[in-house]
User: Fold this.
Amino acid sequence: MIIDILNYLTRFILLVFFQIVIINNIDLSTYVNPYIYVVFIIGLPYNTKPWIVLVLSLLLGMTMDSFSSLPGPHIAATVLMGYFRRFYLIFSTNKDDLSTKIEPSISTKGPIGFLVYALIMVFIHHFVLFYLEAFSFNQFFSTLARVFFSTIFTILLIGLGQLLFYRIAKKA
Amino acid sequence: MKNLIFFIYKYYVFFMFLAFEVFALIVLFRFNNYQQASFLNYTASTSSSIYNAINSTTGYFNLKTLNDSLQVENSRLRSQLLQSYYQHGYTTTTVNDTQYKQQYVYISAQVVNNSISKKNNFITIDKGSLHGVKRFDGVICPNGVVGIVWQVTPYYSLVQSVLNSKSNTGAKIKKTGDIGTVTWDGSNALFAQLNNVNTYVPVAIGDEVVSTTQSASYPEEIPIGKIVNIDRNPEKNAYDITILVHTPFSRLKNVYVVRNLFKESQQSAEVKVLEEEAKDHDN
Assistant:
């Protein structure tokens, strides 16, 4: 139990650090702002209680917001994503797995299953985040393009991270 | 009552989610426009010290280019010193100290945090009200204009970058002296837009765009950019001009805050004129 907490605390700090120090300093284009810290919420075990997911989302959002010049968008986006996580997992995973400590990853959900799951989560997050950051609906489509390209890059980075840390599930 | 409690208990996750979202939106709306200062006050002490630690390590990587640009600026300033002028011919002048009064004070500052890839970009610098920075002071770098001080805390200031969709920088075309406004459409960090230049003005690709004193934040003729594209806007009888920005926003490090000591008197004079015009209009 304590080992788990320490494990996830380290992951939290490392991801936030990685996001702020490295990812935020890569200025590819105004349309590409990947936010890979969301992988912390995406990778929580199946049996994490919903309220714990929400509280962790709030904490993660607040941490990211305190490093930006505008408070609020990261909290709103991450909490919404954390809330929807449960519904997609109930829909996409069998009941036996849901009560175990397994983490959703390419080795447990398979590459396609995991990518679809991550894509939906990241899209929800980025959609809310970019529109709240722009704080207006004029230039609607340029913000939408921003959501679109950033989602692709976040997924790309998450996929690379998964390949680095997990083994791809062999087909049964 | 019992049913209500049971209902809330049953759907507690949903209510928690609702509460968190409402909290986020309240924070966002409260701080969105002009109260960012107070938020900055909460977070500046911790996040800025972390940013400072990061900068003190990454700062070494571009020391060479930084030194070069400072050296170029030093040599330029040196050449403007009185000692570097040869006295040509004989003139008798009476030096009257009251003739020159200092108008601009420069405060050097370091960039602590910077972004160029958002739609509304802000820059955090490590000088604040304790060093004499005030709101709406201009910020420049050796290459050109950077932005306007937006929020001030004792030790840090938040600068609204020229690369901000809400920024309006008063500018003029150096060759002809015609004024316009520099804005940013949020798509590319290298290019900004120069608006409100009338179509009768003879503009050409390659013309320099510089700052004016009409906004009272910048000194006269600080470079902004170079015209790279000119389009005619048929609706407004004005040009849509694209300029290549001189300031290297992606590797900004040393900047100067410009304090205009006459700003208040300039603005109070302008306000008086506006008030009188309004009065005339009423009569």
